[in-house]
C-alpha cells in the first residue's frame, strides 16, 4: 500500500509532461535515377540475353547426342615360384610407372585418335551434323588430325581413378551405333597396346638370357669345330688312347728286356765264353733295347710319318681343345637353363586388359545436358553481373 502511494506522484508528473514533437525525415522518397536504369539494362544484357540465346541454341539448334560407355582396368597375373615363397626376392624389383598410367596417356594421344579414325572414320561420324546447324558440337570433316584430336577431347570423357586403377570412358556421337563403334575401336586398340607392352616386357626379361645363350652356343660350335679340325689334320681321334697303347708296348718291351738280360746272365754262368747261345742272347737284348729306344723316341720326338711333330705336343694340344669344349658345354648348359628360367618367369608375369563394362548401346539421347548448361550459364552470368555492380558502386563511392 505504501509503494502505490509513492508511485502516484511520478505518474502524475508523466501525464502533465508535454508531448514530444515528431522529427522530420532527413531524405526524401526514393526516385528512379539513371544508374538504376543502367543496372536494369546491364541485368538484361549480361544475364537474361545470354541465357535466352543459350536456351534457344540448346533447344533449337544443338543436335541430340548419344553416349556409349566402357570401363576397364589393366590386370597383371604374377605366379610365385617356390624360391620366391622363401624370401620374396621378386618384390625387390618393380617398374617406375604402372601400366594403367601408360594406358591413360595413350588414350589421350594423337596416335590413338589416328588409329581409331582409320577404323571407324571419326570425321564422318562427328561430321554428320553440319557446322552451320550446330557450330558448337558438330565437326568439320575437312579438318586436320590436330583438329580431330582437339575435338576428341570434347567428345570423349576419360575418368581415371589412380587409387583403384580403373578407367571409365564415355563416347558421344549423333547416333547410338556410331558411339558404340567408337567405344569398340578404342577398346580394341587399348587391348592391342597392353598386349604390346606385355610382349615388350617378356622380350626384355629374356633378352639378356637369349644373348648369353647365343654367345655360349657360338663358343661351343667353335670349340667343336677346332677339335674336328685337329682330328682331321692328325688322323688321330684321341691321342691319349694312342699314348696309353704306346706306354703298354714300352712296358712289355722293358719286361722282355729284363727277361733277356736274366737269360744271358744264366748262359754266361753255365757255358763257356765262345758258346753261340751267348751271342744270340746278346743279339736279342740289343734288338729289344733298340725297340725300346724307338718307342721312346716315338713318344717324345715323333717320326717322319707324323710330320716331325712331337707326340707329346699333340697330346697337349688335344687336351687344351678338350678343356675348351668342356668349358663351352658347361657354359651352354648354364645359359640354356637361365634362358628357360627367364622364359618361365616372363610367362608367369603376364598383363592383360580386363573390361568389366563392355561398350554400351544407348536408347535415349542424354546429351548435350541442356538444363545443366543453362544453370551453369545463368550462374556465371549472374555472378559476373554482381561483380560488375559491386565494382561500379565501389568506384562511385570513391569519386
UniProtKB/TrEMBL annotation:
InterPro entries: Bact_polysacc_biosynth/exp. GO terms for molecular function: protein tyrosine kinase activity. It comes from the Bacteria. One of its GO terms (cellular component) is plasma membrane. PANTHER family: FERRIC ENTEROBACTIN TRANSPORT PROTEIN FEPE, TYROSINE-PROTEIN KINASE. This is Uncharacterized protein.
